[in-house]
Amino acid sequence: MKENTAVSAWLVFIVFLRLGCTAFGGPVAHLSYFQQELVDRRRWLDHQSYMGLVTLCQLLPGPSSSQVGMAVGYQCAGFRGACAAWLGFTLPAALLLTLCAVGFNQVADLFTPLTLAALKLITAAVVAQAVVNMARSLCPDWPRKILLLAAAAVVWLLPSSWTAILVLLLAGLITAVFSSYQPVFSRQLEMRQPAVSTGLVLCGLALLLLLILPVLAWLLPSTLWGLMDGVYSAGAWVFGGGHVVLPLLQSAVVDSGWVDQQRFLAGYALTQAMPGPLFAFAAFLGASLPPAYNPWLGAGLALLVLFLPSTLLLFGVLPFYRRWQNNLYIRRALLGANAAVVGVLLAALLNPVLSSAVHTWHDVVYAGLAYLSLQWLRVPAWLLVLLAIILGWWLGS
Q: Of 93, 98, 171, 290, which shows the fewest CB atoms inside 10 Å?
């Protein structure tokens, strides 16, 4: 890619810091925020290039929205831009969750059951808005609408991270073989990619760490080595975003006895109320280690290690993915894969987002009003979240 001198790493950091402070709703909503801010408003990437990165990140393990953010930052300002995007987007939630862990007894009372219920309903509205907007742009015709609905039905009936991967691949295969589309990719911004040799090294390093960390944790038994092993494995094997990583992290830190179950669940509930990536939950867990360990060191270590495998794989695979995109059949396959991505997100909206938030007709009304506020009145999501926290604390106290 020709370097876009108008976009510096510092500007990338500032923009993603703002997103990290305001992007509520989880990974599905984050992708919509990114599209509005980075593609529609700032035009750092064209629409097709952005959706190509979204599809790639859906196929990789790890936090898809954070990976997309790092990929966009990389396109703008190289590896410094990728680091700036990750730091800006992750820092607000990670810092708040670390402070919550340090002062856990004082903060936990702020989030009453009423507050958490309201936050879940707002999250459902934000995710619904994201799915609707993405479906309009990515599924304009009936063949892609049918792919969207079929993908959603399969993933909803057979909920599994591997099901989502297979659905994306199958949808891409269908349009690659049967589509007669001649997709046009804008050449306004030529995509940047690492060297093939760099990609091979990064993929090899990701695999090497997956193999060597369990050995080090066994040879050097300590909480920190055990934490690195468990958290790295969780980040390497999770497909489908932050919600899926919950049982893996629970196995890593609760079953080992480092964090008790009540604190773990309370921290996860707090994470739902935060903007930015759900993977920031790792900062809370790292700061909740036994008192012998510095909470800030534990938070930083857990956060870095959880994001590390997905970051290595993203930049390890990117050079090969960009080469593959020059093939006409792969370009056609992306039409189906992008439609299936929306279907996978629709399935996530149905379960677990709506299934965990909507239980009565009152919930349906409140979620509907929140959706209308976002979609038609253009009320920012952060304002709805702030009102939910204040009203929930006032009514529940």
A: 290
Could you read off the pLDDT of 317-346 as tens digits, one per residue?
Answer: 998 876 676 677 777 887 888 788 788 878
Q: Inter-axis angle of helices 113-138 and 142-157, to 10 degrees?
A: 140
Query: Whole-angstrom Cα distance, residue 379 to residue 397?
Result: 27
Q: What is the CA radius of gyration of the chain?
A: 21
SS3 track for 4-44 = CCCCCHHHHHHHHHHHHHHCCCHHHHHHHHHHHHHHHHCCC
Residues 6+ away with beta carbon under 8 Å from 168: 55, 58, 59, 151, 337, 340, 341, 344
DSSP codes joined into one string, 89-154 = HHHHHHHHHHHHHHTHHHHGGGS-HHHHHHHHHHHHHHHHHHHHHHHHHH--SHHHHHHHHHHHHH
CA distance 84 to 397: 40
128: closest CA among 335, 347, 331, 327? 347
Sign of the dihedral defined by the CA atoms of residues 367, 373, 375, 380, in that order: negative
Using the 8-state DSSP alphabet, how is residue 192 labeled? P
- Residues with Cβ < 8 Å from 32, sequence gap 6 or more? 129, 130, 133, 134
Cα–Cα distance measured from residue 113 to residue 388, given in angstroms and rounded to the nearest whole number: 11
The residue type of 7 is V
Cα 109 to chain centroid distance, Å, stands at 27
Determine how many CB atoms are found less than 10 A away from the CB of residue 375.
14
d(CA 262, CA 79): 39
Q: Taking the CB of residue 158, how many other CB atoms lie within 10 A of it?
A: 13
d(CA 7, CA 77): 7
- Nearest 5°: the CA angle 57, 284, 235 is 30
Q: What percent of the chain has pLDDT over 90?
A: 32
Please determine, for residue 105, whether its predicted confidence score (pLDDT) is greater than 70.
no
Q: Centre a 10 Å sphere on the Cβ of residue 8 and count the other Cβ atoms it contains.
A: 15
**Contact present, 286 and 137 (Cβ < 8 Å):** no
Q: Is the pLDDT higher at 38 or at 292?
A: 38
pLDDT tens digits for range 17-57: 999 998 876 777 788 889 889 998 999 988 878 888 887 88
